[in-house]
Amino acid sequence: MAVLAYSLGKREINQYFCIKNAKLLSLVAVILLTVFHTVSRYYGGGDTCEWLLSSGRFLGENVWQPYGCMMHKYKSIPKLHNYQIVCHEAKTCLAEKRVAFIGDSRIRQLFYSYIQIIDPTQKENGRKDPSVKPDVVIIGAATWSIKLRSGSSEALQQYRANLTAISLPLEQLAEDGEVYWVLQDPVHEEVLSGNRKMITNEQLDLYNEAALGTLNSNKKNAKARVRFLGASRQAAMETIAQSADGLHLPENTRNVGAMILMNAVCNKVLRPIHGSCCQALPAPSLLQKLTACVFLGSTLVFLFKHINRHWKSRPTPPDVESGEEKPATAASPLSHKAPFQAMCKMGLIMAYFYLCDRADVFMKEQKFYTHSTFFIPLVYMFVLGIFYSENSKETKLLNREQTDEWKGWMQLVILIYHISGASAFIPVYMHVRVLVAAYLFQTGYGHFSFFWLKGDFGLYRVCQVLFRLNFLVIVLCLVMDRPYQFYYFVPLVTFWFVIIYATMAMWPQILQKKANGSGMWHIGILVKLLGLLLFICFFAYSQGLFENIFSVWPVSKLFELNGSIHEWWFRWKLDRFAIIHGMLFAFVYLLLQKYQVLSEGKGESLFSTRISNILLLISVVSFMTYSIWASSCKNKTECNEMHPYISGLQILAFILIRNIPGYARSLYSSFFAWFGKISLELFICQYHIWLAADTKGILVLIPGNPSLNIIISTFIFVCVAHEISLITNDLAQVAIPKDGAALLKRLLAAGVFTLGLLLMSKSAEGNQGEGH
């Protein structure tokens, strides 16, 4: 589907028309899917708790996926700090709650599995306490009735009568608590012992039908409902053959049932981000409501201007001197209604974001990594990229087409990495870390080259860069109610851009024009880079000082995540040298280019044949050595410590392999370059309209067909990212005027607006603290 989106926009002559049609098609798809899911939830039942309890499927061994929602994995890990966190979750959920398990030996086993999720040190024994009313009742029985009466019809009738007798008490318990009836799991009839041969799957089906038909007979009181746990039965149908005695379930299947029950009881209390099942939607915050009003107001203004212009429009009078008609749009590149039109489009797009990841409309599923889900799309993607190769307009090292290509294929790899959950596989994780470092390398390379060659340190240029980097993220922070640091890459790139600007703009400003007059200025720029390196090293080994600086309000509001700046410290430290690598490389390259050391003509090798072959060999060996090292990594923490010191070598090796051969430098992949032009939008948009639950899961637009779902969601996702890129460019022209006085007024207004948001946020946090 990414190929379709690219192919529709490949030829410049038809690019606007084709991409416009693709976006209209995606809009129609969104409307139809929204209507379908809304109607399905209204008429077919949209309770995610029912989805959790009723059905699902195995994604892999011991990994259960409920239908339409994500199940949080409450797990006990031997590590002390993680174990304490798990206990805290359980204590928060089950504090002052009494959970009763009532039934036969299979319910007893379910009880053991449930208890071991909370505390694995507990022994397998239960405690009878009939004098206390339980808050949660988990009940189920049938096998003993079948066994004692040899599966007779009288036993089934008596079972139904007993259910009728306890139905009202169970419903009364459900009014103030929760009652779960566990449907009978199947048996493996071939291995049942002789005294259990009468317990057949046919008998169990009859008993399950009796329970479903008898309980919840009081239709008037919808609140007092007994919930049926049938998902564990569905899981058992796939694993019962592993049962040792044919009756009791294997441990992994019992754990599935226990985890389902834990999610049903605790998700509504703990609201884990990994678990969308059984969670009620939070009410929109004040900022979300105000943001919606702004978009609605922009839409109304746009419609008014559009209708008003339509009624007042007249044919353009001919020029009496030339006899030609004057074009109506010649006066200005953007009409007065263009900003409101852009905001109207952005409002519609943000409505889709909200529906995908904040409203209870579309489904979500959890990720599950397998080698095939990552490597097969990866191979397919690179084959397409090579197939769509074209001659480059210029053959200089790291020309614009090549850097767009580089950003494009890296972004596509990162997208596949995220949706496949490949972070669980350490070798892939380490290679993707190099790609993120390469993005920052390009930031250092690009901005250093601009300032060195152009010498433009004006406020207009700075504001343009900051606006284009941050516009989408700031809007998402307001619409999705997420902190700025949540979209970590944009704060990271923004921070380093400011550092690069400060380094190059501070006295003495050293530019290429000045350096051409005296070689001493080259030493001056190296001294600046050395100072930047010392600055980075100082903070890298002073975590306390780093945290103190970035914990001061209001700076902390930009870098905190969940009340801590630990995530910012981790991201900053991990790629702390990538920027300076890019700046140093740009300086050395421009110096070599100035003294004509490089051969950048079409078809020419970058260096002499001997030097080119040696550098290519070293680069290939470097790649192979890194891959072997990454494959031998035992844990992420140790490998991340090495990453800042060796990632730059891999980036340099790639640049040399890509640019030394003249034929390689003369070609580029237009497929990758197209995606590279919208790489930032792709990276940010994936959080909510391709992935789900703030990147923890996968958005499901087409339930029951994962392949078709990926195709449709990817097509919409790419179209949305491309449109946001255009909207950002349009609004940048309006929001950042070239006139200095007007720009200062805009900055003052933006500062007041930001301060207001920070104060509102601080006030909201204070109110929450008082509430607790």
TrEMBL record:
An example Gene Ontology biological process: carbohydrate metabolic process
Annotated Cas1p 10 TM acyl transferase domain residues: 272-747
Membrane topology type: Multi-pass membrane protein
Localisation: Membrane
Main location: membrane
Transmembrane segments: 368-388, 408-429, 459-479, 486-507, 519-541, 574-592, 612-630, 667-687, 708-728, 740-760
Protein family per UniProt: Belongs to the PC-esterase family. CASD1 subfamily.
Protein name in the entry: CAS1 domain containing 1
Source species of the chain: Oncorhynchus mykiss (Rainbow trout)
Taxonomic path: Eukaryota, Metazoa, Chordata, Craniata, Vertebrata
